Amino acid sequence: MKLSAAAALYATHLENVRRLSPATVRAYRSDLRDLAEATDDGVLREIDLESLRDWLWRATQRGDARSTLARRAASARSFFSWAHEEELINTDPSLRLVAPKRGRSLPVVASRDGMRQLLDERREIAVDGDPIHLRDHAILELLYASGMRVSELCGIDVDDVDQDRATVRVLGKGAKERVVPFGIPARDALNAYLVRGRPVLLARSARATPAVMLGVRGARVGPRAVYTIVADALGPVIGADAVGPHALRHSAATHLLDGGADLRAVQEILGHASLGTTQIYTHVSSERLTATYRLAHPRA
After folding, report:
1. pLDDT tens per residue, range 107-149
2. Which residue intervals of the chain are DSSP H helices?
3. Catalytic site residue from 149, 198, 250, 255
4. Is residue 100 one of the residues assigned to a domain?
């Protein structure tokens, strides 16, 4: 079997069995397509460790970043491990494949005061009752209050929201469902939107939708639109041009830990499969603590 044919089967496995996101599957496809090109789409059983090392070396010569090399090595290891389990190959050539460890930069977060000012301003703008202003205020409040991913926000339906308990049911990565709490300001903003904003937007569409967040024409809002909403609102607060919705998730997690939340509780709220992913926010908190100490202590 050719490598490209096996890679196609693996992509189907990732989509239907592991239920990975489309973006993650695309990344695997891209990495394995690059490997197939580097090996002239050779026979899967003939690819060995040296072939894989040569593939990564060529990527290094192209100037690929360490993070790209690390991801491609991980993609190869995952693919060949699956191929070995499926008995498409006799031995796994990727077992001793290593790549440079990716550099891990700390996430950019907004300050508490900056977030408070931003959300207060958005609340004032939404007072005019414009359905888009109401929606945008609810989006910002809910993302910051819950720490949910943008894809999760776009996917929630009206029945997923429990306003009495101030919780929302979301479908995360790997089709894993969890219930996330949110606070009173987010509940007020969401209620105002559901009562006065969403019906107006829904009336603009010929087809009814259960989605909570709607676009200008009444259909379910997409991630790209939410990205623009958050970038426009949060960019001036953080002082960065390329600020996406994940910055609100980073800020929510950091502020929870700053306030004394348990690390495992934050892991559950964010929907991280690994505690190690959540631990990066402890580094953000410690850096902020160190900066405060250096500014405030006379002997710092």
Report:
1. 677 888 889 999 999 999 999 999 999 999 999 999 999 989 8
2. 3-16, 22-38, 49-62, 66-85, 112-126, 131-146, 150-155, 184-192, 198-202, 223-238, 246-258, 263-270, 275-278, 280-296
3. 149
4. no
Identify whether 249 is a catalytic site residue. yes
Q: What is the pTM of this model?
A: 0.63
Domain that holds residue 33: 3-85
Tell me whether residue 283 is one of the annotated catalytic residues.
no
Taking only the tens place, the pLDDT of each residue in 61-71 is 888 888 888 88
CA distance 25 to 23: 5
CATH number, domain containing residue 224:
1.10.443.10
Look up 246 and say whether it is catalytic. Answer: yes
How many domains does the chain contain in total? 2
Which of 68, 85, 102 represents a domain boundary (last residue)? 85
Catalytic pick among 2, 178, 196, 246: 246
Instruction: Check 10, 28, 193, 281 and give the catalytic one.
Output: 281
Q: Are residues 122 and 233 both part of a single domain?
A: yes
